[in-house]
Design goal:
By secondary structure, this protein is mainly alpha-helical. The protein is 63% helix and 9% strand. It is built from four helices and two strands. Helix 1 packs antiparallel against helix 3 and helix 2 packs across helix 3.
Length: 108
């Protein structure tokens, strides 16, 4: 896989997985072909954030910030598809799964 594509895929994954929200909750992020990445059960995420010590206002702000990151990830994925570098969003996770297998296949 060419370096530029690999870098863009890693950026998408980073936007989804490297957000502070993951310190408090595990949002279920899914791909919708029309709207891109969405969070299932936003109210459950807000409850998790409050339960873990954030105020309601902080929780809403964090969720809003995370949704902005998902918009950026969506734009990148759509760009990759439009440029025919990938054919679908599934290829992002195929790449990640492949990388994980390489990690676990290394000699100890």
């Amino acid at each position: 896989m060419e370096k530029e594509l690999r870098d863009k895929i890693e950026e998408v994954v980073s936007l989804i997985k490297d957000h502070e929200i993951w310190d408090y909750s595990s949002p279920e992020v899914v791909w919708d072909d029309d709207t891109g990445y969405i969070i299932e059960d936003e109210s459950g995420i807000l409850e998790d954030l409050v339960w873990n010590g954030l105020t309601e206002s902080e929780s809403k702000t964090m969720l809003k910030d995370y949704k902005e990151e998902l918009k950026k990830a969506t734009a990148l994925v759509k760009q990759l598809i439009e440029e025919n570098l990938i054919t679908s969003e599934d290829e992002i996770w195929d790449y990640i799964d492949e990388d994980d297998e390489d990690f676990y296949d290394d000699d100890d």
